[in-house]
Structures are given as structure tokens and as C-alpha cells.
Design a protein that fits this description.
With about 200 residues, this protein is α/β, with parallel strands linked by helices. It folds into two domains: about 1-30 and about 110-200, P-loop containing nucleotide triphosphate hydrolases (Rossmann fold, 3-Layer(aba) Sandwich); about 35-105. The chain contains nine helices and five strands. Strands 2-3-1-4-5 form a five-stranded parallel β-sheet, with helices on both faces. The longest helix is centred in the middle third of the chain and has 24 residues, at about 80-105. The model has no long low-confidence stretch (mean pLDDT about 90).
Amino acid sequence: MMQTNTRAIALTGGIGSGKSTVAKMFADMGVPVLDLDVVGRDMLASPTVQSALLDTFGSGIQNEQGGIDRKLLATQAFCDAKQTARLNAILHPEIVAFEQQWLKQQHAPYAIIEASVVLESGGISRMDALIVVLADKTLRKKRVLTRGKQDEAMFKQIIERQCDDDMRRKYANYILHNDSSLESLQQQVIQLSEQLMKESL
């Protein structure tokens, strides 16, 4: 648990579930939101992290400017569990340190920590509660392919390294269903925010 008056509420969901949409809805209501995936991406610019990644994965992950190419890194790091563990060993301590520092600076009753692998990484032990966004896998796949950032093979690879919805349900304190309209999702988020406000006072 954090030594802060702001409750740390983790927000997670499988790829294409609408987790980022939910995070934006909370942010639009004035709730502090930290996206750990973005923090992780930003960490790739740190010289210390770059050096550790090059030592671990080799120069094949560099772009033309000498920085880290995220796509090349993903190809290397997510090809098997051992490689993924190596990436996590480098990035997670840095991400956790940033998260804890950020939380200490918040003064709201609760803050949302958006993280796609909060359960897989053991990060749930640092949180006060967990919100899970659920959606049908076929619908999630359609959303991801429509976005055009990942193809079907990459979607399958990401699904395989993320835990399943049964595990998410097991650890969830709150569940949001994102199988219908954005209005329905927005209504669920508003109600949950009111509940979290009451519980955090």
C-alpha cells in the first residue's frame, strides 16, 4: 500500500477492451490518471534504460538515430516468456519508482493507474483496488484491427501474453462492461466514480 492519502486504483483490461477509453473518461471528470504503458514507452528514452536494453537484446533493436525502435524491441521481447521477463526486469523497477513518486504528488481522494499487465507483473500488490474492463474477444479483435496499429498475428501474440478474463474477474473489485454503446460505458464510469469518491473519503 502507498504511503499517501490518495487511493491507487488500478485499471486494466485485455487489448481492445476499451481500457484507455475508460481512463480518458475518468480524466475528463478531473480524476488523476497515470498510464503505465506510456511511462514505459517514455522510459525507452532514458540513457540508463537504453544501455540495459542494448546489453540484453543487442543492437538489432536500434533505429537509424541510435534510439530504441519499439517495434523491433517488441518483436524480440515478446517472442517468448523468458525474453519478456528480461524486458520487465529492466523496465518495471523504473516504472514503479515513477508511479510511486507521481502518487505522492496527488491530492485527490483516488487516482487511476492504467496498466495493461498489472496482474501479470504482480503490480496489483501495490494497488488499493482494481477496475477491470471486459468485452467480448471477437469485438476486441475487431476494434484492434480497425485501429490498424496491430495485425491479427500481433493481436494473437498480445492476447497470449496477457492473462485471461477469468483471472481478471478473480482479482477485480469493480467490473465495467464495454460490449454496447459508449453512452452505456460512460454511465458505468460516472456511477463507479461516485462510488469510489464515497469509499475514499
